[in-house]
Each structure stands twice: as C-alpha cells, then as structure tokens.
Design a protein that fits this description.
The protein contains 13 helices and 20 strands. The protein has helices spanning about 5-15, 40-50, 55-70, 95-105, 140-145, 150-165, 205-210, 245-255, 265-270, 285-300, 305-320, 325-345, 470-474, and strands at about 20-35, 70, 75-80, 170-180, 185-195, 225, 275-280, 280-285, 355-360, 370-375, 375-380, 390-395, 395-400, 410-415, 420-425, 430-435, 435-440, 450, 455-460, 465-470. Helix 2 (about 40-50) packs antiparallel against helix 8 (about 245-255) and helix 3 packs across helix 6. It is globular and about 90 Å long. The mean pLDDT is about 85.
C-alpha cells in the first residue's frame, strides 16, 4: 500500500499497535553464489581501489613490480604474477590444473569447481594474455610476506585469493521467506544462512561482507509473535554518486573507451591537468574541467562522444586484422578534424580561469596572494607579478588547531612525496604527525587524538585509548 503523508502513517501505526501478529507462511529454499572470475586489468584496479584504497596508478605500479620480479630468498628474482595488462579471463590448462590440485590438497575435493566458466560474455576482448594470476599458486601470500613490501603483499594477496577462489565451488545458502499477518496487513521478511562456504573460505568482497537477516530460531506457520517495535522510515531517491576511480574504470570498460593499459594514465592525466579534483575517493569536475568540456563539445562534437573512442578502437582492430586499410580510416577522419580545428582557432574565444584568492598577505607588497599551479603542484604567488615576484609554498588547512600552539594544522609532503601533518607556524612550532590529528582530546590522558581508519586513537602510545570516529562527527 502507498502512504501519502504523515497523518496516514500515524493512523496506520496506531492501528498496527493493537493487532495480533501470526506467521502465515514459511518458505525455504536454496540459492548459490558463483565464484568470481580471475582479475583482468579493469577488475583488479576496481577491487584494489575499493578494498585497499589504492589509486589506479599505484595499483599498476605495484603490479608491474610483482610482474617484473621479486627477490625471494633462496630463489633469486622471480616474477610472481602473470602479465598485468589484459582484458581476458582465460587461464592456461597448466595453471588451472595446478590450482585444482592445490585446492584439493588444502581444502578438500568438494571445494573444487566442477565448471569451466572462465570467459566474460557480451563484449569483444583481446585474448592474447591470460587473466592476472599468481605464476605459482603454491607460492602463498604468507610464504612471500617477508620478501614483499606492505603494499606489494596486500596486492599480491588480493590477486592470489581471487585466482584461488575462481577455481573453487560456489557458496550455497539456505534461504527462508516468512510472511507475517496482522489482520488485513501482511509483512514479509527474508533471511539466509551459509550452508557451504565454497570459494568464500578464501575470498569475499564488499557484498559478501554485508550482514543480512539471520533467524535466531526456526519459525513455523501458525506461530504467534509479539510486537516489539514499529519503525517508520521514509526513503528518498538519491542522486547518482560521484565517480570514484573504480567506478570510472568500470564505466570506461562498459563503454569500450580505452584499453587495459590506458585506464590508469587517463585518470592520472585528467587529475594532473586539473580537469578533475580528487577528494577522499570521489572525483569532482573542476571549473577548468567544465570550461574545457563545454568548449570541446561546442567545437568537436563528433570527438567528444562516448561512442567515438569505441568506434575508433574497432576500426583499428580491423586494420590490425587486415580487413580495413589504415589510409581509408585516416582519409575518412582527418578532413573533418582539420576543418573543425581551423574553425576552432578562429571562432573560439580565449578563456581565463580566475586565480583563487587566499587570506595570505604578500610580505613584500601587502596584496592577498593567489593560488597558482606549477609542475610540482600548487603554490602561492603575488598577483602583482612581474613587479612583485614573491612566492610561498601552499599548504592545505585541515580545520584542526595545532595541539601545541593553537594555530592551523596543514597537510605537507616530504621530499619523497609522503604526506604528513604539521603546524603552519613551522619552524617556530615543531608539531608534526604522520596520522591526521583530530580536534578532540583524549578523555583519558588529555593528549590529542589521531585518525586511523574509522577510529580515533590517542597519540600517546602508552595511553591506548581508542573510540569510533563516528562519535566525533555526532
């Protein structure tokens, strides 16, 4: 039934409080959850972003290191994963047989997959390389932990678990659907529990980790229930979420834009050129990005189109296969492009993006300094250039007072690019922290607290006080 306003809701709640509740139907069934396919470049970048919080660039850099070789004690330098740029989920017969033998020995024969489903459907793929997998499944993450850096280990562990899971049997759930009657009103509840974990004994994703409804006791038709609480909740349609690196890679793959080797460079380029800004995990279009996009859509509508790149990729595949001559492709494309470029040079107006003015005052001339962008990122410059050439480093304020002197804490970087937090009044104030400090003080010892994941931890190691970060936000 549809509830149109609060008055109807209040009337319904009043009526339901006086009803008797009884189970009118109980249905039991079984469903299976199939094992995931092994990683391609795209799915590896997506999963590493979601579970390890790695950027696509970092994921590819670490994967390249694992592919080129790791110095393993007693074995020399060994490549521990297969080629990292692939859109195929195919696995060689030797690797498949070795994985099944390993799973049988470690988990039991009933954990081995009985199917051979290893290929993505519904889109064209280049099958030159296998899926991303460990070169030797017996080389477990635990065995290599001492030979890998922390991030290398986490990525290798993700690849190893995904490949092992792809050769394993599906997980099986027992499902229960219950209908609860209250006179003319009917409520439904569904619950499930795992009866055979299968591949989930090795690998689980975000969806698997979400806790569903679990029945604490068996329910039977005709049982009387006691009402404990009614929760009236109103849900609104949410706007689409901002892109993250993971969701952008997924969308590019679905639209056929680019190849496995181009996803990471594409994202890195649009961020470095300030068309897109990254905050936390979300990607936001900047003012510069909006202007450039509008100009491109105005001057080159045929190129700034999601189908253009995919179509061009298809034509280039035909050139590679020898079914289309490359001169035909160029002669069909270039004249229109040259015409658009010539028209754009004459008609498009020059666009200037105003510099962002800050509250930092120039030491030489007293003007408010502005944010400029250089090869190494943002910096402060005097708007009076070239008369005044004063510049300063730009530090992003995090909105937390310095625990030592009370001035602003800012985000800084070491010469090697590692982020840390320090006082804006450095060198007069020597406050520094590798973890992001919080404005909240430790209730136990009075020291400042730092953020570690979803928790607030006392900066004084001997104190040991910890609390959930959500409590600070509330």
């Amino acid at each position: 039934m549809n509830i149109h306003n609060k008055q109807e809701m209040d009337e319904l709640l009043a009526a339901l409080n006086e009803k008797e509740y009884e189970i009118t139907e109980v249905k039991k069934g079984e469903r299976i959850k199939n094992a995931p396919l092994p990683f391609t470049t795209s799915t590896l970048q997506q999963e590493a972003s979601k579970t390890l919080n790695f950027s696509t660039q970092k994921t590819m850099r670490l994967a390249q290191q694992l592919y080129e070789g790791i110095d393993i004690k007693g074995n020399g330098t060994v490549g521990v994963i297969s080629y990292l740029r692939t859109d195929s989920t195919r696995i060689s017969e030797e690797a498949d047989a070795a994985a099944r033998e390993y799973i049988t020995a470690q988990y039991g024969e009933n954990y081995v997959s009985q199917t051979e489903k290893t290929v993505k459907k519904g889109q064209k793929i280049q099958d030159a390389h296998e899926a991303i997998r460990p070169t030797d499944i017996t080389r477990t993450p635990a065995a290599l932990k001492d030979s890998l850096s922390r991030d290398q280990f986490r990525l290798y562990q993700l690849i190893w678990k995904r490949f092992a899971a792809s050769r394993m049997a599906p997980a099986r759930y027992e499902t229960t659907s219950v209908k609860i009657g209250a006179d003319e009103y009917v409520f439904t509840v569904a619950a499930s529990k795992i009866v055979f974990d299968g591949f989930m004994s090795v690998y689980t994703d975000e969806e698997d980790q979400k806790k569903g409804n679990v029945l604490n006791r068996s329910l039977e038709k005709g049982m009387k229930l006691t009402l404990k609480e009614l929760k009236p909740e109103q849900h609104f349609t949410q706007p689409p979420a901002h892109y993250t690196e993971a969701s952008l890679v997924k969308t590019m793959e679905e639209l056929g834009i680019g190849r496995p080797s181009t996803y990471a460079p594409t994202i890195t380029t649009i961020i470095s050129r300030r068309y897109v800004a990254k905050e936390q995990k979300n990607l936001y279009v900047t003012e510069l990005g909006e202007v450039v996009n509008n100009i491109m859509k105005q001057a080159f509508p045929s190129i700034v189109d999601v189908n253009f790149t995919a179509t061009m990729e298809g034509l280039l595949d035909c050139v590679a296969a020898g079914t289309v001559k490359w001169k035909t492709v160029v002669s069909n494309f270039y004249p229109d492009l040259k015409k658009d470029v010539d028209a754009a040079e004459e008609e498009l107006e020059k666009v200037e993006i105003q510099d962002e003015v800050t509250d930092v005052v120039c030491d030489n001339c007293g003007r408010n300094m502005v944010i400029k962008y250089g090869p190494h990122g943002r910096f402060l410059a005097c708007p009076g250039f070239p008369e005044c050439r004063n510049t300063k480093p730009y530090f992003e304020k995090i909105g937390v007072p310095c625990p030592k002197c009370g001035k602003e804490v800012v985000l800084k970087k070491t010469k090697k690019g590692r982020k840390y937090y320090g006082c804006e009044d450095n060198p007069e104030c020597d406050f520094m922290s590798w973890q992001k400090p919080s404005a909240k003080r430790c209730p136990k010892c009075g020291e400042y607290m730092v953020e570690k994941g979803n928790k607030l931890v006392c900066s004084q190691e001997t104190c040991g006080y910890v609390e959930a970060k959500e409590s600070e936000q509330e």
